[in-house]
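Worked example 3 (structure in, sequence out).
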């Protein structure tokens, strides 16, 4: 059995997460939500969103908005968890265009956009809620067996981050049943506080109190279709 990957008949494939790059920012000691707009990664740091170029790591923009948990991008607007609400934000100006109640009423964590919906992690309740982005109405709920942090979709696959105790991983789950299909185990004392795919071969993972965003290699797939 390889040291890098293991699998048994009763459990998911388990890989050691391959961290290919780390990003850090002056004056930043917290990363919560993370999203990607096709060119830039956006990182929520509590009181401001920082956009940076993943090629050179240099910040390109900042928005002074409340941003203490998950972040998502729908192709035009940013969505940002701020305490018990989700704000819809113009990324060019930082103006809040609309707000809806967050489904976890302040217990929300990661967030993603896919198929016209927001997918919002509920940390301690170990859930992911699919919600209507216009009203906040819960469409359906996926149960997890770990504290949920970041959430993302890529090529029809649903992945989410976990952080419980002193362990963290990035896991692929069945979006219907919640069954864990694959896990990327983070190194000791390296945690995931937000998650987004670049639509290709990388995840961007928030690093909590480290103040870092980490690029993590996504396992290769054969014959998968695109979905975002």
């Amino acid at each position: 059995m390889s040291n890098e990957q293991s699998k048994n008949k009763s459990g998911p494939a388990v890989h050691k997460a391959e961290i290919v790059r780390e990003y850090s920012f002056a004056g930043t000691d917290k990363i919560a939500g993370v999203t990607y707009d096709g060119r830039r990664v956006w990182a929520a740091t509590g009181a401001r969103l920082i956009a940076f170029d993943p090629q050179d790591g240099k910040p390109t923009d900042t928005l002074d908005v409340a941003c203490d948990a998950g972040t998502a991008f729908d192709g035009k607007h940013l969505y940002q968890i701020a305490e018990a609400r989700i704000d819809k934000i113009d990324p060019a100006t930082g103006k809040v265009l609309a707000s809806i109640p967050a489904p976890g009423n302040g217990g929300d964590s990661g967030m993603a956009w896919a198929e016209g919906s927001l997918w919002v992690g509920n940390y301690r309740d170990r859930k992911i809620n699919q919600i209507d982005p216009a009203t906040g109405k819960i469409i359906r709920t996926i149960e997890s067996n770990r504290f949920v942090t970041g959430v993302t979709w890529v090529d029809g696959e649903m992945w989410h981050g976990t952080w419980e105790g002193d362990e963290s991983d990035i896991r692929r789950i069945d979006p219907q049943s919640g069954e864990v299909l694959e896990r990327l185990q983070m190194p000791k004392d390296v945690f995931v506080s937000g998650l987004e795919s670049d639509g290709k071969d990388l995840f961007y993972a928030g690093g909590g109190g480290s103040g870092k965003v980490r690029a993590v290699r996504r396992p290769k797939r054969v014959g998968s279709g695109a979905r975002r």
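Notes: Residues 13-217 form a domain with the Neuraminidase fold (CATH 2.120.10.30). The chain has no helices and 22 strands.
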